[in-house]
Specification:
Length: about 425
C-alpha cells in the first residue's frame, strides 16, 4: 500500500482497533466509506475584472452521533481524498471526546496568500452559497482549519444568515467574538494538547523541563509554543512552509511571533537572538524531548521516523504520522499522543461555541478553560488506561475508545433507514 494513500492509511487504524473490540461487521462497513462528498467549482470575480474558478468540496463522513462537524481548509494541494480522510478523522475525534457530532470536513483548492482580502471574501461567500443546502446548524457545522481563520468564518456565517433570512450563528464555529464566537476558541487546539501533556506527564516520565520542537508555526504551533514556554519548557526549533530555525538554548518567541505577524517565515529570524537556520526537513530529527507536528499530514514517515530524538510526539496536526512511521516509533518506545485526542481541544471549544449560540448565553473564559481541561483529562486518562490494559499504543487505544461509542450509536440507530437525503 502506498504510504501516501491517506484514506487507506486511515482505514488501517480502524482495522487495528477492530481487532481489540467486539463490533459487528456492519459497523466497520458503515465507517469505511464517506456518506456523501459534494464537489463544486466556485467561480469568483477577481479584482482585475477577470473571472477565476476554484475546486471546492464538503464531505459529511458519518452523522450517526449527530450533525457533522469539521473545518474548512484552503490549500493549493487540497484533494477530495484528503477532505474525506480529514472527515473520517473528525468522526473518530468527536467520538473520542464524546461530543454529540459526526465528522465532516471541507476544502478549497487555493493558495489564499495569492488573493487580495476582497477576493478571499468573495471566495468564502461563494463557498457558503454553493454548500448552503448541505451546511446547517443541525446538519453540518464548519470551522477553521489550515489557512482559514475567524475572519473567514465570520464572512461565511454572515452569508448563511443572509441566505436563510435570519441570524444563524450556530451554523459555523471559530467566528469572531463580535459575531457570536466563543472566548477561548483561538488557542483551543493547542490548549487541549497542553492540558493533555500536563495531565499525563508523570505517567509518561516527562514531568521535568522539556526541550520542544514544533513543526508548523500557525494557529496550533504558535499557541502551543507560548503555553509550553509559560510553564518553563524550552522551544528549541520551529518550522513553517518557508523553512526552520533552531537554538539549543531556546528560541526567542517574541521575535518569531513578530516575524509571523509581519507575514514572514520564521526563517527571517535566523542570525539574530542565537537562531540558526536549518533545512525544514531536519526539524523532525532535532535533539528534543517533545516533538509537536502542527502542520500537515504524512510529515513523519518511514524515511525519517528513525531520526526522531524526541521521546514523546503530540500530534496537533491531523494525520502527521504514517502507519509505517507509527510502527517504527512504537518499536523505539516513542509515545505518540494521537491527533484524534491530542488536537481535539479545537472541536471541543467549537462545541462550546455552538451550545452558547443555541442558548444565547455566553460563558466566561475561566469556565471554558475548566470545561476543556475536564474533558481532555477525562478522555486522555481513559485512553491511557486502555492502552496500559491492552498493551497497545495510545493511537490504537483512542480508536478502540471511539469505535465503541460509534458502534453503540450505529447499532442503536437500527439498519432500516441508513440513507436519509
Ligand atoms: N485550527 C484548528 O482549530 C485545528 C487545526 N488542526 C490541525 O492542525 C494543523 C495546523 O493547523 P492550523 O495551525 O490551524 O493551520 P495554520 O494555517 O494556522 O498553520 C499551518 C502552519 O503550517 C505551516 N506549514 C505548511 N506546510 C509546512 C511544511 N511543509 N513544513 C512545515 N510547516 C508547514 C504553515 O507555514 C503554517 O505555519 C493542521 O493539520 C490542522 O488540520 C487540528 C485541529 C483543529
Ligand atoms: O472546530 C471544529 O469544529 C473542527 C476543527 C477541525 O477541523 C479539526 O479538529 O480538525
Amino acid at each position: 500500500m502506498p504510504e501516501d494513500n491517506l484514506l487507506d492509511s486511515a482505514l488501517t487504524r480502524l482495522d487495528d482497533a477492530a481487532k481489540h473490540i467486539n463490533v459487528d461487521a456492519d459497523v466497520i462497513e458503515k465507517l469505511k466509506f464517506p456518506r456523501e462528498t459534494t464537489k463544486v467549482r466556485l467561480m469568483i470575480r477577481m479584482d482585475d475584472g477577470s473571472r477565476k474558478s476554484f475546486l471546492a468540496w464538503r464531505c459529511r463522513y458519518d452523522d450517526t452521533r449527530g450533525p457533522t462537524k469539521g473545518g474548512i481548509r484552503y490549500h493549493p494541494d487540497a484533494t477530495a481524498e484528503e477532505v474525506e480522510v480529514l472527515a473520517f478523522w473528525m468522526t473518530f475525534k468527536c467520538a473520542v471526546m464524546n461530543l454529540p457530532y459526526g465528522g465532516g470536513k471541507g476544502a478549497v483548492q487555493v493558495d489564499p496568500r495569492t488573493l487580495s482580502k476582497a477576493e478571499l471574501e468573495r471566495l468564502s461567500r461563494a463557498y457558503m452559497q454553493a454548500f448552503s443546502r448541505i451546511i446547517g446548524p443541525d446538519r453540518d457545522i464548519p470551522a477553521p482549519d489550515v489557512y482559514t481563520n475567524a475572519m473567514i468564518m465570520g464572512w461565511m456565517a454572515d452569508e448563511y444568515s443572509q441566505i436563510v433570512g435570519q441570524a444563524s450563528p450556530a451554523v459555523i464555529t471559530g467566528k469572531p467574538i463580535a459575531l457570536g464566537g466563543s472566548l477561548g476558541r483561538g488557542d483551543a487546539t493547542a490548549r487541549g494538547g497542553y492540558y493533555l501533556v500536563r495531565h499525563l506527564a508523570r505517567d509518561l516520565g516527562m514531568d521535568g523541563r522539556l526541550r520542544v520542537a514544533i513543526q508548523g508555526f500557525g494557529n496550533a504551533g504558535q499557541y502551543i509554543a507560548s503555553l509550553l514556554a509559560s510553564d518553563g519548557h524550552k522551544i528549541v526549533a520551529v518550522s513553517d512552509s518557508g523553512g526552520a530555525v533552531q537554538a539549543a538554548e531556546g528560541l526567542d518567541l517574541e521575535a518569531l511571533q513578530a516575524a509571523k505577524s509581519d507575514g514572514h517565515s520564521v526563517v527571517v529570524t535566523a542570525g539574530k537572538n542565537g537562531h540558526e537556520a536549518i533545512p525544514a526537513e531536519d526539524l523532525v530529527g532535532v535533539d528534543c524531548d517533545l516533538l509537536v507536528p502542527a502542520a500537515l499530514e504524512n510529515m513523519i514517515h518511514r524515511g525519517n521516523a528513525a531520526s526522531l530524538k524526541a521521546r514523546l510526539v503530540l500530534e496537533l496536526a491531523n494525520g502527521p504520522v504514517t502507519p509505517e512511521a507509527d510502527d517504527i516509533l512504537a518499536q523505539r518506545n516513542v509515545v505518540v499522543l494521537p491527533d484524534i485526542l491530542a488536537n481535539a481541544g479545537g472541536v471541543t471549544v467549537s462545541y462550546f461555541e455552538w451550545v452558547q449560540n443555541k442558548q444565547g448565553y455566553y460563558w466566561e473564559i475561566e469556565e471554558i478553560h475548566a470545561k476543556l481541561r475536564t474533558i481532555m483529562e477525562r478522555e486522555g486518562r481513559a485512553i491511557w488506561k486502555l492502552a496500559q490494559e491492552r498493551d497497545v499504543t495510545m493511537r490504537t487505544a483512542a480508536y478502540v475508545h471511539a469505535l465503541s461509542r460509534l458502534a453503540e450509536a450505529i447499532e442503536a440507530h437500527g439498519t432500516q433507514a441508513d440513507f436519509i437525503s
